[in-house]
Design a protein that fits this description.
The chain has 83 residues and is mainly α. The protein has helices at 2-20, 26-46, 53-75. α1 (2-20) packs antiparallel against α2 (26-46) and α2 (26-46) packs across α3 (53-75).
C-alpha cells in the first residue's frame, strides 16, 4: 500500500507539474500538488517501521507544503499565462 501511494503521488505530481501547471488555475495546481505531497508522505510513513507520532505529523504537513513550493521554484509559476 505504501509503495502504491508513493508511485501514485509521484505520477500525478509529475503529470500536474509538467502537464497542467500552466493550463489549469493556480489554486487547482497548488491543491493537486499538495495532495501529491500528502500521498508521498503517507506512503513513506507506511513503508517504515517504528515511526513516531511527531514524525508522522511533521512529514505529512511539511511535504504538503514542500512539493508545491519545489515545483514552483524549479519549473516556474502556476496558472494560465496571459498573452
Amino acid at each position: 500500500m505504501g509503495i502504491g501511494l508513493i508511485v501514485a503521488g509521484a505520477a500525478v505530481g509529475l503529470a500536474t507539474a509538467f502537464g497542467l501547471r500552466t493550463r489549469a488555475p493556480a489554486l487547482v495546481v497548488a491543491a493537486v500538488l499538495a495532495g501529491c505531497g500528502l500521498a508521498l508522505a503517507a506512503g513513506a510513513i507506511l513503508v517504515q517501521d517504528h515511526v513516531s507520532t511527531t514524525n508522522r505529523i511533521l512529514t505529512l504537513v511539511l511535504l504538503s507544503f514542500l512539493v508545491p513550493a519545489h515545483v514552483r521554484i524549479v519549473l516556474g509559476p502556476f496558472g494560465r499565462r496571459s498573452s
